[in-house]
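Render this sequence as a predicted structure.
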Amino acid sequence: MDTFSAAVMLFLIMDPLGNLPVFLSILKHIDPKRRRKVMIRELLFSLAIMMVFLFVGQQILSFLNLRQEAVSIAGGIILFLIAIKMIFPGPGGVTGLAAGEEPFLVPMAIPMIAGPSILASLLLLANQAPGRMLDWSLALLMAWGASAVILMFYEVFNKLLGERGLTAVERLMGMLLVMISVQMLLDGVHHYLAVVQ
């Protein structure tokens, strides 16, 4: 996987357009003057968490004695489940915050931006090619930067796309993520069978 493909995959997993309605519901109870500061803080927290996870991913795998194939298959399954939820979203709230309460780390930084699926993907990238950490860091920065732009201008995108437009974009991203997850799963099974034989 090249740097741009990795960036696209990470961007799809971050799903900033899918997160927009949730961010709108969280931020609407916060003082308008504080909203941008809160958003910047949460975005920086999420980037720091993802970078740390990217660089210690290999050590985590070694400590847990996990093989690359297991991580690839598990990552594919996780991405597939996330993609299905994007295509067929369930009812219910996701914030868990009281009206007017300012978010801190949860739920905006974790798990809305730096969720389990993105952390699993970073772990997989670090394990597959530990010598390409600069590429993966660049891919992560590209994906995070694109997500940050969308989330920082959430009001513009909300007005531009509307509720139906955001739903359509999220489901399209979900479809693309299904294909990526199936490929990850197939790659993991293929490598495992090659090792066993």
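Summary. The longest helix spans residues 154-196. The chain has a mean pLDDT of 82.
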